[in-house]
Specification:
homotetramer, mainly alpha, Arc Repressor Mutant, subunit A, 2 domains, 9 helices, 77% helix, DNA-binding
Chain lengths: 197, 197, 197, 197
DNA sequence: GATGAATGAGTCTTCATTCAT
DNA sequence: CATGAATGAAGACTCATTCAT
């Protein structure tokens, strides 16, 4: 019989890789990275343990792939046109997106915060995450600056903390916190800025 | 490392037990619960591995003791006289204490958030923590209610999220966030309440 | 690497089979049989892993084929006309050939000695090798006997050990031992025999 | 009860370590390093798998310990007073010892040659072995030099090869080669040197 | 109380081999 | 013929826990 085509193999790889990543994210988020064994991931993905290593070098590579892929996707949201400048619309959009994204990706957020809290475990991941985060603060801080805010970096940190706090509480227990009400309060609190004082 | 001294758990009569708890907290916070082996704790505490099991049933019991002991200490801070009522002074004191405590106990906070994020791992701990937390929200919510706030529970959640966000960012990287400036901003944001609108 | 070219196993009809054997020999010799994975062989041979199993039943069969093919080739050298009798010319020729062959096949020698040293691993191979070796000793021993040597079998073992010693040292590190000088010394040591005392 | 004394623990460690090394040497020699699993070593030593790691960092460390310990012991034999000079008595003694040692340590020799043949596998070990070997050649070469030998290094290599050849054949199959006869032949061959030509 | 040797279940990872295409 | 995805058994190593002393 004719061997499978290159594309056929490629398709299998892409699909199976996604399968593994999905299973891994759910398990990492709910049970924790260290408690999740590769066997469990394989089982959840409905494949054999060995096959995992056909797609990833190691358990850690699964984690890295998971984190970096999602982070980049996430950063696109903050500064869509990547010009380092944030308009009023983009500011409101960012807050809006934070809440939209939160609902769809609470699994990822759990994993993200868990990782940030234990840097020793995953040094490499942490460093790269820091690098990805810095420009975000820049953009937001620039925005506050342009609005005449006295201490824009502090304001950016404050907003970031507020959102992180809401996010983490939602990640911990989605039923504990009413997202819509929270969003309204955040928008209202920052209205003076985007309504151009 | 946090300025928690070797006398932290002095209320725990046995000196050895305090030694173990101190060592465990530092390691759990910096490396993570699962990555920290009992041997490492013993080594850090300057005792033998076997001795740990004279004082604790298991590694998990160390964690539980750590968490519950500290949580109770913490809750005392929120509502000192346990009357379920919060005065303006107590409200400002609570915010003040949050920051004071944060500086001294970032190790514990790391551990606390890490645990809350992965409930499956430590079901028992989580349930008890929830129980401890509920009354706090009640007290704060009551306070906002007494001030004529329309949706006091939402306001309590919002404040809690804000503080959690600051706390977690500080726990992750103490250099990234200026505590004093943050405290000023929080107090200023809630001034309308405790200055009796 | 040894100067064995890709055409080494040309007597093996299938070209692919020769490709596999060449790759396997080089890898087995340099890395060791157990450390060499079938994937690595396939990669070195420029074919797919699965295809190897079209030509060989197992990894072990590759090794066996490698060894037996080469050993037979080698034995032809010792007693070319297979009459069990060795002339003075054939004796000198044998020593000469040992050195010639050594230079071209140090890869094989590494593998050969490695296998002889760990009989349990490859019982089957060992037995067959022994069978192949015995007649060689006979022929050489007969030669010494015909020269009036008192203890011809001892003499044969001695010569064999000497050559093995040179061979193995060359196989281990070709730069460590000057083959020409060694050959001269061997020939000189045995000159009394072939110069008919 | 009083805890065991320091000496008591020390004794246990020494004994158990020797137990493991003995079991490992026998298995490494007969089956090969890679084929010998840590479980098998533990089983042969009559202890649990895990305990092995209480005494050695890794399987490789067992091998290294085995090799270096024995090699140093061995080198003492060559140049007992470590003055780099070899007398006639020491020369004869060295040959004598080679054969004595051979009988008692054929297991080690198997392992030694097997390792030398596959340098890639155990780079570290190989390098150190080379270092240990060089001075030996120096001493022997000096000896031949002092005897007026034209090319002492060649002579040293030749003798070394001869002994290696005998050793390896004995290691492969002790019944195949009569040690006494071999020793007599070696001594006789080199008699002109130590009988002061 | 105190020590650390000892256990064994569990973890990540590798690899010979099979098989659908 | 050829390919490489897929499997599963096996291997090195870790670690919570037990226990003799």
């Amino acid at each position: 019989m004719a061997p499978r085509t290159k594309e056929s193999f490629e398709k299998i790889r892409t699909e199976k890789k996604a399968l593994i990543l999905d299973a891994a994210l759910e398990l990492f988020a709910s049970e924790g990275y260290h408690v999740t064994s590769v066997s469990k991931i394989a089982q959840a993905a409905g494949i054999s343990k060995g096959l995992i290593y056909n797609y990833f070098e190691s358990k850690e590579e699964i984690l890295e792939t998971l984190v970096f892929t999602t982070m980049e996707e996430l950063l696109d949201m903050i500064d869509p046109n990547k010009d380092g400048v944030m308009t009023d619309e983009e500011f409101v959009y960012m807050i809006d997106m934070n809440f939209k994204w939160l609902e769809a990706n609470s699994d990822f957020l759990k994993l993200y915060f868990a990782m940030m809290l234990q840097p020793t475990v995953l040094k490499l991941v942490e460093v790269k995450l820091m690098e990805l985060t810095i420009p975000v603060f820049k953009v937001i801080s620039n925005y506050f600056d342009s609005k005449g805010c006295e201490n824009p970096m502090i304001e950016a940190r404050y907003l970031n903390s507020l959102l992180d706090g809401i996010n983490i509480n939602y990640a911990i227990d989605p039923t504990s916190i009413p997202l819509d009400a929270m969003k309204q309060k955040v928008l209202q609190q920052y209205a003076p800025y985007y309504n151009s004082i």
